[in-house]
Design brief:
Blueprint lengths: L3 H9 L22 E3 L9 H5 L5 E4 L4 E4 L9 H5 L5 E3 L13 E4 L9 H29 L1
Antiparallel strand pairs: 1-4, 2-3, 3-5
The protein binds iron/sulfur cluster (2 copies).
Length: about 150
């Protein structure tokens, strides 16, 4: 009869489990659920693709395409944490089970290519050439004074 107090306690306590799926627990703060992207904030740097341990993200900078295989995602949150523009987010629920394989494909505005040094060099020469006539003008103005 040593266990009688335990039996009585268990009869009086509330159940330690929930009647899932009828009773669903509230998610914890910073829960790592379904991944989504705010494509307008993406600069297509590729950091998320390089850091992803399951290699399920692809970034095409030329086309402005961000692709993710959600079935390969392990919900680690590394992509979200390392994104420099903080445009990756995770919902507080997991993705619903699917019967067919899907891909997340988001199209954004690809970054404009930076101008090469060769393209900017003629401008510098032109501005130099523009500066020289001004010096001549100054000489002419001085000779007129004389
Ligand atoms: S790390 Fe962020 S900004 Fe860079 S490609 Fe991924 S989602 Fe876009
Ligand atoms: S949460 Fe982890 S596994 Fe999923 S896409 Fe991001 S880095 Fe990859």
């Amino acid at each position: 009869m040593l266990f009688t107090p335990t039996v009585i306690m268990n009869l009086l306590r509330k159940p330690a489990t929930r009647q899932y799926p009828f009773t669903v627990r509230d998610p914890f703060p910073n829960y790592r659920g379904e991944l989504y992207i705010d494509i307008d904030g993406c600069i297509f740097c590729g950091t998320c693709a390089r850091k992803c341990p399951s290699q399920c993200i692809e970034v095409d900078k030329e086309q402005g395409l961000w692709t993710c295989d959600p079935h390969a995602c392990v919900y680690c949150g590394i992509c979200r944490d390392t994104c420099p523009t903080k445009c990756l987010h995770m919902k507080d629920v997991h993705r619903k089970p699917l019967t067919e394989k899907t891909m997340m494909v988001e199209k954004g505005e690809p970054p404009k290519p930076k101008k090469k040094a060769a393209e900017t060099a003629p401008k510098a020469e032109t501005s130099k050439a523009e500066a020289e006539p001004k010096a001549d003008d100054a000489d002419k103005a001085e000779s007129k004074k004389k």
